[in-house]
Design a protein that fits this description.
about 525 residues, alpha/beta, Rossmann fold, GMP Synthetase, Chain A, domain 3, eight-stranded mixed sheet
């Protein structure tokens, strides 16, 4: 870690302290018509941290917040983690059942949120959680409590005067870099979400590597991801903190609002999952929006279609493109593209590993996979999760006996050293005794100029045990028929890999984080 150009500091908030000294007056957080400098943000974080101590929050207590992405979220996150407590983000879009699962599992002692968020019914959800879960000792509301049910944020902050700066410093010095800092629940596409405990050291380490490999210093970009996802917590807010940039918060993703803000503020970075970026390109305002200030495109979560990437590059002054691969349990990325890779490499691979984050492709036979052979991506180091919350058996199963973390993703190494995802181990299926990797089939079909995006699943078959079904979203013009697309696939894939059925949709179902919800697709069969 000492080889990095940026320092890997002990606690997440140590980087806020650093920037408050180096860049005290620079805008760090912008929301609507207000802005906070690094120095102002530090003052608010320290005040909230002292109030948390005065309320009796102990090390490793869980503290939850339900909010859309806005400044209070990241200030709260930094305050909670700075005193050795564990922060838990709640998505207002979640149903009551989904919220109950997370709160019941995490057992937070305090719950923070907003009464009035248009369309989210927050008041009812917050009051129900506070009343039904015994672990929650107090409900604190950032806006004025309705009928005084709960404590206002302003009244909560008044308690900070009961804790000195020396007491706050003492608590922070008691916090170990490898202590869990926050709890992120996995998407739950294959079952009930599990809480992944992520540490201070792992978070800072991943941020520093990402900034170096992806050129993320001094970025000005939008955060509109759900606050319970590592994209908001780390990929956008955390990296921008460590890299000395500026975050522009939007409470929800709207392609028109994204384009308007980027043009008005001359933002230099456009970031999102490919689905979000496609919606921006397809928006009626895209053609006339001035995006010439953008010199960096960054994405993750899924592969970027080549046509979409080219459209964005043509529209902006992009001199660098960056993507990579990671997951909740790895805290951040573990592979990275080169900043000047070709469109083909950027659209079809996940880049190369970093020597500071040991990674191997492990063949099912229990050996290192050879060049071109599919195997599981496994990583090792203290940047991986500390464990799954209250699930010791699941934690043990997530690692090999010698400490390698199972990502569950299958990849091959190309001759140029780039890795290519071929599917999830759980998604791989056997058709007539042969292994089929859905991602390989999706990439082949997406080569057709009339195809925008593809999702492949497997279904039972009496003759071949399992066969592939492809769900296809066609391009705006010249969308092929199912027969034409099967013939196209047969030119690029072995017969057993060609989907036996091709179905067209106007759009694919998505999880809250923008990934295709294949569980929903399987429910159709």
């Amino acid at each position: 870690m000492s080889d990095t150009l940026l320092p890997v500091l002990d606690l997440i908030t140590d980087h806020l302290d650093r920037q408050a000294k180096l860049l005290p007056d620079q805008d760090f957080i912008v929301f609507e018509d207000s802005a906070l400098s690094f120095a102002q943000t530090k003052e608010l974080v320290d005040q909230a941290a002292r109030a948390l101590l005065a309320t009796g929050v102990q090390k490793q207590d869980r503290v939850a917040m339900m909010s859309n992405p806005r400044p209070e979220f990241f200030i709260h996150f930094l305050a909670v983690t700075s005193i050795g407590a564990i922060w838990v983000g709640l998505n207002p879009k979640y149903t009551a059942d989904e919220l109950d699962h997370v709160v019941n599992d995490a057992g937070p002692c305090l719950l923070f949120g907003f009464n009035d968020v248009e369309g989210d019914n927050n008041q009812e959800k917050l009051l129900a959680l506070a009343q039904e879960h015994q672990s929650i000792q107090k409900l604190i509301l950032f806006d004025q409590p309705t009928d005084r049910q709960g404590t206002s944020w302003e009244d909560f902050l008044l308690q900070a005067q009961n804790i000195s700066g020396r007491q706050l410093l003492a608590r922070r010095q008691e916090t170990d870099p490898l202590d869990p800092a926050y709890l992120v629940y996995t998407s739950g596409s294959t079952g009930r979400p599990k809480g992944a405990l992520l540490t201070h050291r792992g978070t800072n380490f991943c941020h520093v590597i990402a900034i170096e490999r992806k050129g993320l210093a001094k970025r000005r970009l939008i955060c509109n991801f759900p606050i319970n996802h590592v994209a908001a917590i780390g990929d956008i807010c955390g990296r921008t903190l460590v890299g000395g940039g500026t975050i522009y918060f939007q409470e929800r993703f709207s392609p028109g609002a994204v384009l308007s803000l980027m043009a008005a503020e001359h933002l230099n970075t456009m970031v999102g999952v490919p689905t979000m970026l496609q919606m921006c390109v397809s928006h009626p305002d895209f053609a006339q929006t001035d995006l010439t200030a953008v010199d960096l495109l960054a994405w993750g979560g899924s592969a970027m279609p080549a046509e979409l990437l080219q459209a964005l590059m043509d529209k902006t002054n992009c001199t660098r493109c960056t993507m990579g691969y990671g997951m909740t349990e790895t805290t951040g990325g573990v592979t990275y593209s080169g900043l000047h890779d070709s469109v083909e490499v950027l659209a079809t691979t996940i880049g190369t590993p970093d020597a500071r984050q040991p990674l191997r492709i492990w063949h099912p036979d229990g050996r290192l996979a050879q060049l071109g052979e599919a195997g599981e991506i496994q990583v090792k180091g203290d940047f991986t999760l500390a464990g799954y919350w209250q699930l010791p058996d699941a934690t043990t199963a997530a690692f090999t006996e010698d400490g390698w973390f199972h990502t569950g993703d299958l990849a091959v190494e190309r001759p140029d050293g780039n890795l290519q995802i071929v599917g999830r181990m759980s998604e791989m299926f056997k058709s007539g005794g042969y292994n089929v990797y859905p991602r390989e089939v999706e990439l082949a079909l997406e080569e057709h100029p009339g195809v925008a995006i593809v999702a492949v699943i497997s279904v039972p078959d009496p003759r071949f045990q399992e066969v592939g079904v492809a769900y296809v979203v066609g391009a705006e013009t010249d969308a092929p028929s199912a027969e034409e697309l099967r013939a196209f696939a047969a030119q690029h894939l072995a017969n057993y890999k060609v989907p036996k059925q091709i179905l067209f949709l106007d759009e694919l179902p998505l999880l809250a984080v923008g990934k295709v919800d294949k569980k929903a697709l399987r429910s159709n069969h």
